[in-house]
Specification:
The complex is a heterodimer of chains A (295) and B (287). In chain A, 71% of the residues lie in helices and 1% in strands. Chain A has 295 residues and is mainly α. Chain B starts with a helix and ends in a 7-residue tail after the last helix. In chain B, helix 4 (77-108) crosses helix 10 (203-219). Classes of the chains: A mainly alpha (295), B mainly alpha (287). Chains A and B meet through strand 1, helix 1, helix 3, helix 4 and helix 5 of A and helix 1, helix 4, strand 3, helix 5 and helix 6 of B.
């Protein structure tokens, strides 16, 4: 008898505990996937019934559509910039917060607040901060003698604005995980390094960074799966149909709900889902490895 | 090194918190003061201030105006907040109940393919709302669910189950099996042991899980925007609808409403601060 890990019972009672949840999830997740697949081959529209089979015409259009390719590229770039900055900044702030001082826990809690707030609501308010003419950001930049770009309307700044607001919202997340990673490093390692008179840089490169890497990887993956869905902030800052900021999700919104083209939109959605499910598989494998190594 | 640390922390704390402070100040202004060509950031208790001064007369007008119905909307902020509360509370209750039961099943029983099921449950979290919403909308139309509380409650329950199951499994795994074994020796059936012993023991975990479910239902925007065009519109969708308002954005009301909307969430964040790490990593990191 392996003791602790052995199941109490097999069979029916266990099924009764999990079945409602699984049924619910299958209904709300598997059904849309299959229905999407069907819709992608039709000419369905958002209003009015009457579909026709269109075969692979929607897919032919999607693959030839530079807008879709652009949205995919832009989403990838967004993930790269936002998640990269969040990891770097979060880790840097975690290093600064590592040592205990009076009021540290209170400060940390306050710093974590932005990630818990509604991106749609807070993103909307950011428009006032970023406004080119009366926004507080530009007034501060002007006072310092720095350039004052039109953050949300200038073609070359919009994308960066969305990235910056995302970084503001989600750096707390990478900060929290980085701090946990740093706290888990056994102090004996640092003591040994001191005995060996290792330089600060060596200690950082040989001890701190490698030992934090698995959790930083987890943070990167969690943020990536979330950033891939980026919708709320783009909607709030530039709207869904801006050529500089359109992500995959906002493109879907434009095609499905503004243009009402459900058939075409579902073909887009299916391709997006294939990408997302592939990434989710990579992610869950990583998680499994992490759990096994920490168990 | 110490100086660098203080510098990094100070600068970051300013950048992180100033936008929220600015929101608080904006909520105390009149609309003209929010778009003054020279920023006004010192609230004073006066009837008026010089046009180019940094001081502005503080007023609670914006909070009072939250009861008015804006052009293009059908309900006031308070009514939308009510929809958010109803949808958030009921979907949270449902996800915690279902999630706890499922997590208990996975924690204590031999379920065929349990690992695959658990990862299936987690992967539902990764689906972009916009990629799955149309089939749900079409299904909902058959049952006249668009625009109702029930529609979003069901959807948010499904959406939050991944979080609830994973978090609760972490909490339940920590409760020793000795509880059930002792109950079995005393002749209690397992479901009695579950309700009388395990559920009370897991109460903290359930409360933490509830807070995280509530927060994600409260903040959700993609489904809210696309499923409910009238009726039970939640606050994020309502605020987004104010964009492009012909009267210009009512900034003081937006700030006041946003503040009212995010305050409970900030309070909950403080309440569950010890469990934040667990919450945001689906229970992967325990401490």
């Amino acid at each position: 008898m392996p003791g602790e890990r052995a199941p109490l019972h097999g069979g029916r009672l266990g099924t009764a505990f999990v079945a409602p949840t699984l049924a619910f999830l299958v209904a709300f997740n598997v059904f849309p996937l299959l229905y999407n697949l069907v819709l992608g081959f039709t000419s369905a529209e958002l209003v009015g019934g009457g579909w026709e089979w269109r075969g692979t015409a929607n897919y032919a259009r999607v693959f030839a559509d530079p807008q879709f390719a652009g949205a995919v590229r832009r989403t990838a770039l967004f993930v790269l910039c936002a998640v990269g900055l969040e990891l770097g900044l979060g880790f840097a702030v975690a290093l600064a917060l590592r040592e205990r001082f009076r009021g540290r826990d209170a400060l940390l809690t306050a710093l974590l607040v932005p990630m818990m707030l509604s991106p749609a609501v807070i993103g909307l308010f950011w428009n006032l901060i970023l406004d080119g003419n009366y926004g507080i950001l530009n007034q501060a930049l002007g006072a310092l003698g720095l350039p004052e770009p039109q953050w949300t309307t200038d073609r070359s700044w919009k994308f960066l604005s969305v990235v910056l607001v995302d970084v503001w919202m989600w750096t707390p997340f990478t900060l929290l995980i980085s701090l946990a990673a740093l706290n888990a490093i056994p102090s004996t390692l640092y003591e040994a390094a001191e005995v060996d008179r290792a330089s600060r840089w060596t200690v950082f490169r040989r001890i701190t960074l490698p030992l934090c890497a698995p959790l930083l990887g987890l943070a990167a993956l969690l943020r990536t799966t979330d950033a891939l869905k980026q919708f709320d902030l783009v909607m709030a800052i530039t709207g869904p149909n801006d050529e500089r900021t359109q992500t995959v999700s906002t493109l879907l919104y434009q095609v499905l709900f503004r243009d009402g083209k459900v058939g075409l939109g579902s073909a887009y959605a299916c391709l997006v889902l294939v990408l997302v499910i592939a990434l989710a598989t990579v992610f869950t494998r990583y998680l499994e490895g992490l759990r096994r190594s920490s168990a | 090194m110490r100086l660098l640390r203080v510098l990094v922390l100070g600068l970051y704390a300013c950048l992180a918190l100033l936008p929220l402070v600015w929101m608080g100040l904006t909520s105390l202004k009149t609309r003209d003061d929010t778009i003054a060509p020279r920023a006004r950031f010192v609230p004073v208790l006066a009837r008026a201030t010089a046009p180019d001064s940094a001081a502005f007369p503080a007023t609670l007008e914006a909070y009072g105006a939250l009861g008015t119905v804006h052009v293009g909307a059908e309900q006031s902020f308070w009514e939308h907040l009510g929809h958010s509360v109803v949808i958030g509370v009921f979907s949270t209750l449902a996800s915690v109940l279902l999630g706890t039961s499922a997590a208990y099943g996975f924690s204590r029983f031999r379920i065929p393919g349990s690992k695959d099921w658990l990862f299936f449950i987690l992967s539902t979290r990764f689906l972009p709302p916009l990629a799955v919403v149309v089939p749900i909308l079409m299904l909902y139309r058959r049952f006249e669910l668009p625009g109702t509380h029930l529609g979003l409650v069901l959807l948010y329950t499904a959406f939050n189950l991944s979080l609830a199951v994973w978090l609760m499994k972490g909490f339940l795994d920590e409760i020793p099996r000795a509880y059930e074994e002792a109950a079995a020796i005393d002749g209690y059936p397992l479901h009695t042991a579950f309700l009388r012993l395990i559920v009370p023991e897991a109460a903290t975990g359930m409360a933490v899980t509830a807070v995280f479910c509530l927060i994600s239902a409260w903040n959700e925007y993609g489904f809210a925007l696309t499923l409910n065009h009238s009726g039970a519109i939640t606050v994020p969708a309502y605020f987004a609808g104010l964009q492009g308002n012909i009267e210009g954005m009512p900034w003081p009301q937006v700030a006041a409403g946003a503040l009212v909307f995010v305050t409970p969430i900030a309070a909950f964040t403080v309440l569950v601060r010890k469990h934040l790490l667990r919450g945001v990593t689906f229970g992967t990191i325990k401490r």
